[in-house]
Design a protein that fits this description.
The chain is an alpha/beta fold and about 210 residues long. Helix content is about 30%, strand content about 15%. The strands form two sheets. Strands 5-4-3-6-7 form a five-stranded parallel beta sheet, covered by helices on one side. Strand 6, helix 8 and strand 7 (about 185) form a beta-alpha-beta unit. The longest helix is centred in the N-terminal third of the chain and has 11 residues, at about 45-55.
Length: about 210
């Protein structure tokens, strides 16, 4: 189980609860029970918890590394982390997690806290400073290039790929992902071009 030596932090269970949980990260194993001790947290709760744990110098580097960072993320919204929290409960900690389209990559800290041993992030957008942990590795390239150049290094039977809120820019559909990764989660919300409504049910007279 991964450990790290940082100062103790305090994670609030929610805005409506005054209770706080002390986490001495230097002495206790990092797992979902000690690091995120609340049930089905909201996206805001996860963002606040992760923001408290990210080292100050790393936070400053990310926020100063891109002119739009301060408008896209903050300590109450680090991205759509709730999806990652649920996946972290399902993926074995000894597996490799590959996040395709990681953005600023705060989810690397979530998987580090839950004890996952290896987290790989992939994103083609350059000139962005991303969050990172002792157990994370980042590749600035497209998903297709990652599969071509580094896919052979993965034990696919114990690798879980995630493509959450990330369209396949310039690479067509997700067919390439589904063909390569046997363990894969893909989710990209969208709205149909035409409003969708269910037909009204009419009551027929007896």
């Amino acid at each position: 189980m991964a450990t790290t030596s940082v100062s103790p932090v305090y994670v609030a269970l929610g805005s409506s609860s005054p209770e706080r949980i002390s986490m001495s990260l230097s002495s206790a194993p990092l797992n979902v029970n000690t690091a995120l001790p609340f049930h089905a947290p909201s996206n805001e709760e996860l963002s606040r918890a992760i923001a408290r744990i990210i080292p100050a110098e790393q936070w400053r580097a990310v926020m100063e590394g891109h002119p739009y960072a301060e408008f896209e993320i903050n300590d109450e919204f680090l991205g759509f982390l709730k999806t990652y929290w649920h996946l972290a409960q399902l993926i074995p900690t000894h597996w490799t997690v590959v996040d395709l389209g990681c953005g600023y990559n705060p989810q690397a800290w979530l998987f580090h806290l839950t004890g996952h041993h290896r987290f790989i992030s992939v994103d083609s957008f350059p000139n962005i400073v991303r969050f990172h942990t002792p157990t994370s590795t980042h590749y600035t390239m497209t998903t297709g290039d990652f599969i071509t150049q580094h896919g052979h290094t993965l034990n696919l039977k114990e690798t879980f790929a995630i493509c959450s809120y990330c369209p396949m820019w310039g690479e067509g559909s997700t067919a390439q992902l589904r063909a390569f990764f046997p363990n894969l989660y893909v989710y990209y919300p969208h709205q149909t071009s035409q409003p969708f409504s269910l037909p009204r049910l009419h009551r027929h007279p007896d």
